[in-house]
Specification:
The chain is of the alpha/beta class. The protein has a single domain, classed as P-loop containing nucleotide triphosphate hydrolases (Rossmann fold, 3-Layer(aba) Sandwich). Helix content is 45%, strand content 17%. It has eight helices and eight strands. The strands form two sheets. The chain has a five-stranded parallel sheet with strand order 2-3-1-4-8, with helices on both faces. It has a three-stranded antiparallel sheet with strand order 6-5-7. Helix 1 packs across helix 8, helix 2 crosses helix 3 and helix 4 packs parallel to helix 5. Bound molecules: BIS(adenosine)-5'-pentaphosphate and magnesium ion.
């Protein structure tokens, strides 16, 4: 079995885009952001609890997200890509103690100049049917508001937390939390870095090299 991949990277650094591509390499993708948004869409008790937090761009409390993650992974059977978890050292420790235990893991840091990310994120659109990720500035769908992948018309949505103001808060939180997390994985010799400012295909080639 391949190691479980932990993708660390700022909002808009391309975690979701690359994780979707890595499915073709036999990984299963789990994104805590997607799981939380799905709870909001269902209007579940959890969704109601986290909706305001996510709209402001703040972090949901560690134990709530860990419980959601555990309920949605079976790490014994398949190698996972963890997208959006961990967000701090406490979550990294919990991930290991409560889920991955002695399993082989590799953390990949999507290194990128944060100043380009607001522009990337405010232009993101996501297909509400199949989850395909677009960018109005750099990767628009061939036909306006129609998903190239699944063909659904009128399905491209903007995330509520993708406004300039909220992205700025998300980036600020990222800056405050990233270094200790990188040190955590570095000290265990489980960290590799890739340049996430390159075009999508180049980033994917770099990832393929890392996992082979
Ligand atoms: P989450 O959904 O995880 O959001 P995020 O970490 O802020 O990351 P994004 O999804 O915004 O960016 P991405 O890196 O996936 O980029 P993408 O590939 O889409 O979390 C949302 C919220 O949920 C959090 O703020 C928090 O409230 C809560 N939450 C989630 N996990 C939590 C946790 N563990 N603990 C506590 N709270 C948690 O790409 C972005 C855009 O760039 C797209 O338009 C894409 O087309 C474009 N793009 C991608 N790659 C490239 C490239 N190489 N070149 C040019 N453009 C590119
Ligand atoms: Mg994402």
């Amino acid at each position: 079995m391949k190691p479980h991949l932990i993708i660390l990277g700022a909002p808009g650094s391309g975690k979701g885009t690359q994780a979707a591509k890595l499915i073709s390499k036999g990984f299963k993708h789990v994104s805590t952001g997607d799981l939380l948004r799905s709870e909001i869409a269902k209007n579940s008790e959890l969704g109601q609890k986290v909706s305001g937090i996510i709209s402001r761009g703040d972090l949901v409390d560690d134990k709530t997200v860990m419980a959601l993650l555990k309920a949605n992974c079976d790490v014994d059977k398949v190698s996972y890509i963890f997208d959006g978890f961990p967000r701090n050292v406490y979550q990294a420790e919990m991930l290991e103690a409560e889920l991955l235990k002695d399993k082989k893991t590799l953390a990949v840091y999507f290194n990128i100049d944060l100043s380009i990310l607001v522009n990337r994120v405010v232009n993101r659109r996501t297909c509400g049917t199949c989850g395909e990720i677009y960018n109005l500035a750099t990767k628009a769908p061939r036909v306006l508001d129609t998903c190239d992948k699944c063909g659904t018309v009128g399905s491209l949505k903007q995330r509520k937390d993708d406004t300039e103001e909220v992205v700025s808060n998300r980036l600020k939180i990222f800056k405050e939390t990233v270094e200790p997390m990188l040190s955590f994985y570095k000290s265990r010799r489980e960290l590799v870095e890739i340049d996430a400012s390159m075009p999508e295909e180049v980033v994917f080639d770099a990832l393929e090299k890392v996992i082979s």
